[in-house]
């Protein structure tokens, strides 16, 4: 096994015990980038010399006994919405062509303090306003979409060009590409991870979280990110939590809600079969399955768009008026549509969100978490705009990908996507676990228990 193939926890153990140096790991990851990046296009920019310099410093510090913990010397990618001082934050847009961050975002500063090494900034759908990331190819099949908007981060992790990465999630933008590329994606509770210094899409829906190769890796990264930040008005004040899931795979007493409604409607048969098999594995580990009905399903899509569209337009108001030609057409049209939405529609969406949060809170008193597909189908072909379901219903690709992930954004609930197999074409399938606010540890423990019943996952068949 080459160093770039190691998941974070194993790489960290090897570095801690001096069996692997940060320089060796970094060189391996950068070599891997040279091999696959021309085809995959996960990165906007690769900071190779900066990374090598930081790796040498980490190696020196560790040799001198100044080991900072499991992220020390680990190469990472950051979605190109996340500011790093002195590095461009382009948001994959011509609007930001000349922008260079003056200071670190809170999450970048915390990862740097933990010793993580920036490899580069990863592509996003322009300003995170989309579910495909058209610049980037799927790690398993370059003719397929990467998913979005954190497509570059998910592909980098899946292909071995970053040991871990950060993404952002406004309607599924961490979990969708994680599912489509066969890696772990965690959207934490709203407010748990600070967003200061992260370009916003929709302030009341935006989250920052890790994309990794294993559930344990996600727990390690999350531990470095949490903690109150006075610069983010939504930031929660929470006590320190050890998110590591531990070795115990006994899920006795865990009540897993299996949706009778919504989450298995208009879902590919192979996706449904794989997710139901995975839910069966949770039951075999001791969990009790409980059939549940998802509340207010007819209002989910309208509420998501009713919140996101006007908030995004408000953020872009100035540049939309002064330089509309710099936006890609799909994003510009959405932003212009937001200017036409009455304030009453936004207020009704906020009221619907409040009611939805109440109904989900009631549901999650009956069960400990919900298990369902992350996305209704695997990665579609690049350029494909619609999906036709078995009953003849035609759905837009972005609408399909956001449909199952957006409830956790509307409600602010934590959600974890875990790979649960592949379809007949070899494309990854993801299962989503949705839990109560601030119960990330329960989600991680459940995902980790499932993961331990499966063979170790390999990296994507990148070119």
TrEMBL record:
InterPro entries assigned: Amidase, Amidase_CS, Amidase_dom, AS_sf
Superkingdom as given in the UniProt entry: Bacteria
Pfam annotation, one family: Amidase
Every Amidase domain range: 24-444
The protein, known as: Amidase family protein
Organism of provenance: Streptomyces kunmingensis
